[in-house]
């Protein structure tokens, strides 16, 4: 009778509410990630972007005996992160996960080098590595009512163009380019440890979409 009719209506009403909750949570998650990346992270990165290393020496290519003294290395652009498309919001038990694709489109590494190359020493060599768009995956997970834990992982290999100045017409070889770019990749991996620490602080300052 009436009970059966009320019961038969329940799945339809529940499905409607569920769809509404999912749509709302995606919008809330988009706003959350935009707040983390666009407002909180620039504040957290004020001492990390630009990231400036101490001076150091490194071998760029063992076979070709290429080494460089960095005086120093300067990396900029990680504060200019952007959300790519809609985020996902999943609830599993009492945990909520917010996931989003994030891009960095303006990362540049600059260095002043003393370069041992082709059996000679070159002083005041300028090196600039300009990265193509860096794609990454942002994740923030929280138990209901507790602060979130955030993480960020690169999803594609790093690619960059590189220019050297001050080599006095000595050609730039692939060995020098590859050695320099591999070293930049290693340094960015080191930097991301500090970036993720800042990301966790930022993720906890924005209203999480529980």
From TrEMBL:
Keywords on record: Signal
Listed name of the protein: Putative secreted protein
Signal sequence range: 1-23
């Amino acid at each position: 009778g009436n009970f059966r009719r009320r019961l038969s209506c329940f799945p339809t009403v529940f499905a409607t509410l569920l769809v509404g909750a999912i749509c709302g949570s995606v919008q809330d998650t988009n706003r959350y990630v935009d707040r983390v990346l666009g407002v909180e992270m620039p504040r957290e990165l004020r001492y990390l972007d630009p990231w400036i290393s101490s001076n150091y020496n490194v071998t760029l290519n063992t076979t070709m005996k290429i080494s460089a003294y960095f005086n120093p290395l300067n990396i900029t652009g990680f504060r200019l992160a952007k959300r790519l498309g809609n985020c996902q919001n999943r609830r599993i038990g009492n945990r909520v996960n917010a996931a989003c694709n994030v891009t960095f489109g303006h990362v540049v590494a600059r260095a002043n080098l003393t370069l041992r190359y082709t059996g000679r020493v070159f002083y005041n060599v300028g090196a600039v590595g300009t990265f193509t768009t860096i794609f990454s995956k942002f994740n923030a997970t929280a138990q209901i009512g507790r602060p979130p834990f955030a993480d960020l992982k690169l999803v594609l290999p790093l690619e960059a163009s590189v220019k050297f100045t001050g080599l006095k017409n000595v050609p730039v070889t692939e060995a020098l380019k590859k050695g320099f770019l591999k070293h930049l990749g290693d340094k960015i991996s080191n930097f991301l440890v500090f970036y993720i620490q800042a990301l966790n602080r930022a993720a906890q300052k924005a209203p999480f979409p529980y």
